[in-house]
Amino acid sequence: MAIASVALYVAAVRHLQPVHPLLLPWWALGVMFGLAEVFVVQFEIRQGTVSFSLSEIPLVIGLFFANPANLLLGQVVGAAVALTLRRRQKAIKLFFNLSLLSLQACLALVIFHPIVSLGNPLGPAGWAATLAVTHTLDVVSSLMVALAISLSERERMALGGLLGVGTAITFANSSLALLAVIMVWKHFASSWLLLVATAVGFLGLHAYGSLRRTHNRLRVLYESNRATESATDVESMLRSILSGAREMLHAEIAEITLFGPAVDQSASRITLGPQDQWKIDRDVWLDPTQGVWARVVAEEHGVLVARPIKSERLRTYFAANSIRDAIVVPMRAEEGMVGTVLVANRLGDLATFDEQDLNLLETIARHTSASLEKGRLLERLRQEAATNEYLALHDGLTGLPNRVWFLQRLDQAIEQARTRSGSLAVVLMDLDRFKEVNDTLGHHNGDELLKEIGRRLSGALDDDPVARLGGDEFAVLLRTTPDGAAPLQRAKGIVRSLDATFEVAGVQIDVRATAGIATFPTDGEDASTLLQRADVAMYVAKEARSDCEPYVQDRDPYSPTRLALIAELRTAVEQRDVFMVYQPQVDLRSGALTGVEALARWEHPRRGLVSPGEFIPIAEHARIIRHLTLLALETALSERQSTLSKPLGEIPVSVNVSARMLEDDRFPDEVTRLLERYGVPFGGLCLEVTESSIMADPDRSRAVLQRLSQAGVRLSIDDFGTGYSSLSYLSRLPLDEIKIDRSFVTRMAHDARDASIVQSTIGLGHALGLTVVAEGIEDAHTSSLLAGLGCDVGQGYYVGIPLHPARLLDWSKDRGIVPALAAGTPAAR
């Protein structure tokens, strides 16, 4: 703009002549231009300040009554003095305004003289020239101001507001200037009346500017209140308040400082700065010797720090924070002062903050305090609601979800699985002998153990949720379960994650858990059914001394069919309707009969023959197993002595014993009584027990087995290799034989690993001085392999099926099999 001004002046302006012989000196024009720049009207548009003055009046007067050089000099000098001394503009802005004014003066002279020369200067030609000049300069000024604001704020500036207001004011000022020219031209003595008209025009413009500023503030306050009320959290609410305060007060910075709960605690500070920079500092330590917040708190009213700042201490402090002027007001609540609100750096060079701004900010602070109290109340209510919801859905001891949460999540998972035709599983587990921990170490340490178990289960699971349902009972939801045995294996892995010892109160505690698993949709199609059937499976696992069992409907003691079977089985045992069949055991080298295993059978009056795999678990669950075991022992010993001994010799008869019997201290005495009653010699009875039944309570089991051995009972470990036992412990038991589980025997001909297990078991048994029995022999090849490996005794469908006593005698005659005690004769061999 400065270069354009120089070019215009040299090329077209310096040769122009004044229109009227009355020539005003440059200093007179300078005074008028200076006063016009001092008394201005400001309009706030977005982040910029647009100022309008009465400068058109001295400009038009100069066009008529001054030569070009005096007009240009008077305008530049008068404006420079006013802008420098009064407004204290920065150098870049001062240079911008002076360049714009010089460009306007040159453009005015270039446009005015050709038009006014067309006719009477006081007639239409003069009017047209004046209006053309002033409105052209209005457009040029608006364009330059818009460009400057856009460049400085990196934001596109709309010209609508500038041109709309500027055009109206320019027309009014031009009309007033033409009246002044006519009065001076026609009647110079009446020129003083211009002062009255000018003053009225200035006051009108000033009133319009104030009204517009008030309207804008009310609009912004309304919008800020709406945004505050619609905010969903405290941070959004404070951002809306600060944004509104900054816009209403036309400031660069708005800031809220919230005091800590106590004097010695840090405060929080939220700042909205230039270019909408948002900053939250939650650890601010306030120094009462710096800033003005301490003075605001002490005096309980706002402090206005206008520009220029008079206090040296405040000027130094604010300069360090890039603050030129500021207002700080207190925020009050029921408990007293809770913080302060600050706005700083009034935009524009025409004015600083005033008392009106202070009153407005105090109103904003009161509104902020109320909104903050409301926001804090809502936040507290939300937190309390969230806490109550958490407590309603979580276990207070372990922090795990509780039964209500688990059922809700299970319902959701079932719906998803049903929609996607998927599957899921529920694992229910509880701790074995947890009551002993409470009784020994106290309930407090029992609670600590439950916490540790909750942490370990959570760590063992990735995305599958675990919950504590109550007491020592926990549940796991397996949301993705492929077909086959995978869910059961995963459930067993969860149970085994608790195998490592826990340390509670300085004591190492060995915790074991038992679990049951039920799957959707196979075992149930709703949450309560799945949980109930997982509970059934868990109790089946307890009775089977297993770590985890799947739900099987036939083993569910709570199904209507099984409930009826319980009553019928109890009646059958009481009426001795349960009978025994006998499966032969032979020497694999000589083929001699070495013994028989007595197996219980039940002929149901309507259902026919009931499988032992079905009624034995029922007897276990219904606590009929003791009576059933004693009935089986008595029947087997009676038939051995009365039916089997004479034709078959003094062979032992084997009877399976439930784990519950090893927990009964009366059992050895009852066995001894039966042996004496039927006159069974030493070695005539063999009791088969499983590894898991012994290891469930090793000390008690060992004592019972010792008493049985002393009574002349042979002892056998049944299903050897399928349980979890200590070989060093088994070696100290009074055992006579071990039976290799049928699962290894049936596969050994086709699976090298099973063959190796069988071979190792035979070697182990012989090393311990025990007879080794293989059960489950189904073919001659397997029998031959076992004999080759040195196995002592064989049993299975290839050897002989379970038979009634009379048919067993026929079987022995048909096969030419004789008792092992008579095997030394040539015929027997």
Task: Report on this structure.
This protein is an alpha/beta fold. It folds into four domains: 2-216, Arp2/3 complex 21 kDa subunit ARPC3; 231-381, GAF domain (Beta-Lactamase, 2-Layer Sandwich); 403-555, Reverse transcriptase/Diguanylate cyclase domain (Alpha-Beta Plaits), CATH 3.30.70.270; 577-822, TIM Barrel (Alpha-Beta Barrel). The chain contains 29 helices and 24 strands. It has an eight-stranded mixed barrel, surrounded by five helices. Helix 1 packs parallel to helix 5, helix 7 runs antiparallel to helix 8 (193-230) and helix 9 (234-248) runs antiparallel to helix 12. It is rod-shaped. Mean pLDDT is 81; it is low at 821-829.
Summarize the structure.
The protein is α/β, with parallel strands linked by helices.
Terminus-to-terminus distance: 132 Å
Q: Do you know the CATH topology of the largest domain?
A: TIM Barrel
Identify low-pLDDT runs: 821-829
The percentage of residues in β strands lies in: 15-25%
Shape: rod-shaped
The tally of structural domains comes to 4
Radius of gyration: 53 Å
Architecture of the largest domain in CATH? Alpha-Beta Barrel
Largest sheet: number of strands, sense, barrel closure: 8 strands, mixed, barrel
What is the overall pLDDT average?
Answer: 81
Work out the helix count.
29
Helix content: 40-55%
Q: How many beta-strand elements?
A: 24
CATH class of the largest domain: Alpha Beta
> What is the assigned CATH homologous superfamily of the largest domain?
EAL domain
Write the layout of secondary structure elements.
Elements (H helix, E strand, L loop, with lengths): L1 H12 L12 H13 L2 E5 L2 E5 L3 H10 L2 H19 L4 H26 L7 H30 L6 H27 L6 H38 L3 H15 L2 E8 L8 E6 L5 E7 L8 H7 L3 E3 L6 H9 L5 E8 L2 E11 L8 H39 L9 H17 L4 E8 L2 H8 L1 H18 L5 E5 L2 E6 L7 H11 L5 E3 L2 E3 L3 E8 L6 H17 L4 E3 L9 H15 L3 E10 L5 E12 L3 E3 L1 H10 L3 H24 L4 E4 L2 H4 L4 H12 L6 E6 H6 L1 H13 L3 E7 L6 H4 L6 E4 L1 H6 L4 H16 L3 E5 L4 H10 L3 E3 L9 H11 L14
Parallel strand pairs: 14-15, 17-19, 19-20, 20-21, 21-22, 22-23, 23-24
Antiparallel strand pairs: 1-2, 3-4, 3-8, 4-5, 6-7, 7-8, 9-11, 9-14, 10-11, 12-13, 16-17, 16-24, 17-18
